[in-house]
Design a protein that fits this description.
alpha+beta; extended; about 45% helix
Length: about 325
């Protein structure tokens, strides 16, 4: 192929721009990439984009924005940044910024117009608007060595103009300041949480048992911003001893195989269109009733927008029951 992957970066600022990044290629393929790019854009500007792929992209984006899956600190910063999108334009910061309902409803409505994508591509990526900057970036294999050498040189120069004793003195003064009574006063003025502010009542979540798709389900409601998280467990006790080494491969390959009525390319689009995260793993679990006993279980994780619940679970059922585990070339 011409490249290992293609990404689109949106660069904001005074001159808003889209940057297409072709990763894993080289300079000799530049002209071929330009030809393929121009041809693809021209076809899409004339014929439009595949409806299923568009819906898959929207679903992935909505899931990613709603979940904001990152460590707790960065998630807070991200949510705060997202909430400023309305504030910048003198609207209420927290109205429809963190649940994204109106935003993605507007996107879907806009894209329902078949001519919108055609006009957008034609106006922004063809004719005089064609990309006119093609830049080839090649990694410097000695970058780390050069960077560390420069860092050491800067440190030596800094120590020439200011002795290390000065830095030690500042550190000692800072530590003394932290230990001083004045710092206690500052702490008292800072809003903090106390143990009494935390609800300590040990409440068990309300568990709801139901039958869904001919399977017993147990669930409990929690605020999840319109996302449903599911965990399915399958007993693998009937697996023959000699087949156990293949279970890990089975769990990794199960979402990458063709189905009885669907090839992998279509399945991949369907997963993006209906599911946010899908994975399978094999683990040993300790029995609560008899702790000395362990069970080998296949755990299937499927997370999706609650509005896609039925479609997502039907697709997961299709994967688990009709996977053909082919073609074998993909195993390589």
């Amino acid at each position: 192929g011409l490249a290992q992957s293609v990404e689109i970066w949106n660069v904001g600022g005074e001159n808003n721009a889209a940057v297409f990044v072709f990763d894993g290629t080289d300079k000799s393929k530049k002209e071929d990439i330009k030809k393929v790019f121009d041809k693809t854009i021209a076809e899409a500007a004339t014929q439009g984009l595949d409806k299923d792929i568009l819906e898959a992209v929207i679903n992935e984006s909505e899931f990613r924005y709603k979940e904001a899956n990152s460590n707790a600190a960065m998630r807070g910063f991200r949510m705060a940044w997202i909430s400023t999108m309305n504030w910048i334009y003198k609207k209420e910061p927290l109205v429809d910024t963190l649940d994204f309902k109106k935003r993605f409803a507007a996107v879907r409505k806009q894209l329902a117009d078949k001519n919108y994508i055609k006009s957008f591509l034609k106006d922004n990526f063809t004719g005089d608007a064609k990309p006119n900057r093609w830049i080839v970036l090649k990694p410097d294999e000695q970058f780390s060595e050069k960077f560390n050498a420069g860092l050491q040189a800067n440190l030596k120069n800094a120590l020439k103009t200011r002795p290390i004793e000065d830095y030690k003195k500042e550190d000692i003064e800072y530590r003394a300041w932290v230990a001083a009574k004045e710092s206690d006063e500052i702490v008292k003025k800072t809003p903090t949480l106390d143990v009494s502010d935390i609800e300590t009542d040990d409440k068990k979540p309300e568990v709801i048992e139901a039958n869904f798709l001919n399977a017993k389900t147990m669930s409990f409601p929690q605020p999840a911003n319109g996302i449903t998280y599911t965990r399915m467990y399958f007993d693998l006790g009937a697996i023959a001893q000699e087949d156990l080494p293949y279970l890990q491969l089975f769990s990794e390959f199960i979402s990458k195989a063709d189905l009885k009525d669907m090839d992998f390319e279509t399945l991949n689009t369907q997963l993006s269109q209906k599911v946010g995260n899908f994975s399978a793993s094999v683990s040993g679990y300790q029995s609560k009733q008899t702790p000395e006993n362990y069970q080998t279980l296949l755990k299937v994780e499927a997370d999706f927008l609650t509005s896609q619940r039925t479609a997502a679970l039907n697709l997961v059922e299709n994967i688990l029951t009709t996977a053909t585990f082919g073609p074998t070339k993909r195993l390589e």
